[in-house]
Give the backbone structure.
Amino acid sequence: MSPFDLQRDAFGRWVLVLADGTRHSPVTALRAYPVSAPDQGVALMDGEGHELHWVPDLSALAPALQATLREALDEREFLPQILRLDTVSSLVTPSTWSVQTDRGATQFMLKGEEDIRRLTGTVLLINDANGVQYMIRDLAAMDKHSRKLLDRFL
């Protein structure tokens, strides 16, 4: 038997059911390290911010429970991953970027080079003019055109 279950109530809120049958609602799923280790360390929190259950490794869960927990995480997080840069309006900032993300095509404005942060050797975090954050998970894996455009800003 699983140490917990995660389900929705009649109002669409997430409910945590522990192995002893205790129910907690509403709950929120939070990643401890959303960029560097997205599948390691997920906390299920109550409405006051108290941790109710800790999941050390998502991949250790049964596939159905893993999918449900990922759905709960995706509802709370919005960190689109840039897969490709199509065009950049100008090689100086501010500039408008047209990109392909894991959530579809979009455009955003980059105010300055300081809005591109290198988190690790290959991971970049880009903040647009509206405060939305985009991630490039592996700079080295991007196509040549995208890397060439990015190199002008790094």
